[in-house]
Structure prediction request, 338 residues.
Amino acid sequence: MSATFEKSTSNGSEKFEATEEQQAKISEIRKLTGPLPEKLAIYCSDAAIARYLRARNWNVKKATKMLKETLKWRAEYKPEEIRWEEIAHEAETGKIYRSNYADKHGRTVLVMRPSCQNTKSTKGQIRYLVYCMENAILNLPPDKEQMVWLIDFNGYNLAHTSVKVTRETAHVLQEHYPERLGVAILYNPPKFFEPFWKVVKPFLEPKTQNKVKFVYSDDPSSKKIMEDLFDMEKLESAFGGNDDSGFNISKYAERMREDDKRMPAFWTRGNPQSSAPPQPVPTHPVDLNSINLNSDSNAADNGKVDISLGHVSDSETFSPNRSLLVNEGSDNGSREIR
Prediction:
């Protein structure tokens, strides 16, 4: 038998057919996470939990550990609070941007141009990437969970390659945005990229590797990939399409500022796009550090949330006593987490 529930995601809701066993696993993970601050509770919709389960082949212990690490990361990093003015300098060259067209399946398209890298800060580059991911999710239609990446290698050379940034990018995307990538198009990658790809691949999950497509403008068979995925009239000429408008930072900034205005409502309990089942409001500080991530036992004892520091890389953002503030979006304001 299967159970049908309205699958609410951070990008909308869609009908999701879950077997009774799968639904039971989703419910089990809810119990293991325990009470959460409001934004994290909204994040933990059935659909979001299902994404973590799919990423870990429906293994509850592994999926729970992965989800808790993300909850810890989101509590500290606050990706939904990043705004355009903070990262606008990273966007000036159009190295990453959300296109104004979707693919034929209605999925959001992120365009990436490695040769347009304009900053040296790994931390700044990752923060801009996270902003772009959150914005892409914000703009997904109600029946979609995944996006498309179009990676343009025009002008790319080894000087644009950073293994450190690549490793951190792979970690953030795989660990905190599971099952969000539909397909990544690598367009006209240079020949020397293939050895580099062999270095990068071990950092990617096998299912992620299979979503990567190499496309060459002089190869009719690979060009068909583009024709099958996109309306060629809307697709940029850089990818073989007929749109010559190109990237305009001024117009893009206007779009992003408008999207920023929509973000707070996106993370409000009354928002139909974030209809995770209501959870009791914690009556005391929620401890995000105290419980072992490797345990699959009941992690909700005493109302505490099992989330350790995990793979948090920017530990310098913690205060000296290893505490941080989590804005719960409630009348109580922020609460300190130790």
